[in-house]
Amino acid sequence: MDKICIEGGRPLKGTVRISGAKNAVLPALAATLLTGGKNEITNIPRVRDVLTLVKLLEDLGCKTESFEGDRIVLDSAQIHNHKAPYDLVKTMRASCLVLGPLLARLGKAEVSLPGGCAIGARPIDLHIKGLRALGAELRIEGGYIKGRADKLKGARFCFDSTTVTGTMNVMMAAVLADGETILENVAREPEVTFLADVLNRCGAKIEGGGTDTLVIQGVSSLKPIHCAIFPDRIEAATYMVAAAITGGDVEVTHCLPQHLEPVLLKMKEAGVELTEGDHSVRVRRSGSLQPTNIITQPYPGFATDIQAQFMALMTLAEGQSVITETVFENRFLHAAELKRMGANILLDGHTAIVTGVKKLSGAPVMATDLRASASLVLAGLAAEGETVISRVYHIDRGYETMEDKMSRLGAAIRRVRA
Ligand SMILES: CC(=O)N[C@H]1[C@@H](OP(=O)(O)OP(=O)(O)OC[C@H]2O[C@@H](n3ccc(=O)[nH]c3=O)[C@H](O)[C@@H]2O)O[C@H](CO)[C@@H](O)[C@@H]1O
Ligand SMILES: C=C(OP(=O)(O)O)C(=O)O
């Protein structure tokens, strides 16, 4: 298994270009199952999850006509298989996004219960409830969700709590259902709104993207997708923290600051200097870091996917920060690894009390999930001495060429291949 080695203590300087959003491209790829032609998606990040989902779509019958650079042309005219097998689904949460489209397009689906980051139980009961409301018959058998739907019918459904991929799954099924569907208490993340826009440009009739209620008029077919993926807000936030934690000066370009408001606010509170452009943020820090408290929330709150990176930053603040994780019940696995580097973190249920220390020291640490891994890279960049991070396949799931981007900013970081 590959490792990443970092010699810390160098302030990062320069410009970094943000890639397309992993959590936006995955639903857009799954949505190609709903159309019956040549779909074209650009600004795709070359990350492991994308490659895995493309493989899964090919297994279902899609044909990759070309996948060069950041552009894919995927023909979904012939879908001959309705089974998403364990081997392809186990590593990635987003693979469950084929369930709604398969039911809508083929009237049947067998999808292995999804994997993804081990940050909580992550049930998919709300996906199932929503699809059942549209008339699908679903059961869990042998580790698979098995479903049939002769014809999906529009319905009114209220999610018990908000779910990002759950909203996407039910929305994708509803666009080809008979009649009107009203989905209440839906997720408002930009990735959900983007998916609704992409589908609308294919002929779907979805109103309410970005609000907590979606009203969907079913249509009989969709034209192929042509879309460009918007910038990854989590990657952007990660590089902003990299600049801040190393006391550097970095221009983060090709990003959308409006997707990052709570993070920008907290960085300012922490004493980081920010200069915002329309599609960029310059991040500088010369003074000390101040402690700040954060509470993760669904969008537009502070994203849980940035909690681990922010915790790394707060380990070096002058004082005590309280970090509360409300979205996932087990998303503090990075705390134990940060402590190996000298951080002072006390966990109490959903809360982490982080008391800033003067310095972190390089250490061997283990990546446990995607954003936890990013937080260890960030801590390693700031630490004295060498940090060796193992199990970095987690990073490869969601960050495009992270070592190259960090190296270009002046980090002493290298991958040791197994
Ligand atoms: C591929 C992708 O886009 N992943 C993102 C997506 O994950 P994902 O879509 O899995 O996250 P959800 O929004 O569904 O999860 C939110 C909470 O709802 C719970 N829940 C969810 C579904 C369900 O049927 N029942 C249930 O109880 C989950 O366990 C969790 O506690 O949104 C998360 C929250 O912003 C992000 O951290 C992930 O990066
Ligand atoms: C948790 C994440 O991914 P997944 O939902 O695929 O596990 C993430 O992107 O931070």
TrEMBL record:
Catalytic activity of the protein: phosphoenolpyruvate + UDP-N-acetyl-alpha-D-glucosamine = UDP-N-acetyl-3-O-(1-carboxyvinyl)-alpha-D-glucosamine + phosphate
Domain Enolpyruvate transferase stretches: 7-406
InterPro entries: Enolpyruvate_Tfrase_dom, Enolpyruvate_Tfrase_sf, MurA_subfamily, RNA3'P_cycl/enolpyr_Trfase_a/b, UDP_GlcNAc_COvinyl_MurA
Pathway(s) per entry: Cell wall biogenesis; peptidoglycan biosynthesis
Enzyme class: transferase
Biological processes per GO annotation: cell division; cell wall organization; peptidoglycan biosynthetic process; regulation of cell shape; UDP-N-acetylgalactosamine biosynthetic process
Keywords associated with the record: Cell cycle, Cell division, Cell shape, Cell wall biogenesis/degradation, Cytoplasm, Peptidoglycan synthesis, Pyruvate, Transferase
GO terms, molecular function: UDP-N-acetylglucosamine 1-carboxyvinyltransferase activity
Binding locations of UDP-N-acetyl-alpha-D-glucosamine: 93, 122-126, 305, 327
Source taxon at top rank: Bacteria
Residue numbers annotated as active site: 117
Enzyme Commission number(s) of this protein: 2.5.1.7
Residue numbers carrying 2-(S-cysteinyl)pyruvic acid O-phosphothioketal: 117
Record's subcellular location: Cytoplasm
Pfam families membership: EPSP_synthase
Alphabetical list of Gene3D superfamilies matching this protein: Enolpyruvate transferase domain (3.65.10.10)
Keyword Transferase: yes
Residues reported to bind phosphoenolpyruvate: 22-23
GO cellular component: cytoplasm
Cited function: Cell wall formation. Adds enolpyruvyl to UDP-N-acetylglucosamine.
HAMAP family (alphabetical): MurA
Family: Belongs to the EPSP synthase family. MurA subfamily.
Protein name (database record): UDP-N-acetylglucosamine 1-carboxyvinyltransferase
Organism of this sequence: Nitrospina gracilis (strain 3/211)
Gene for this chain: murA
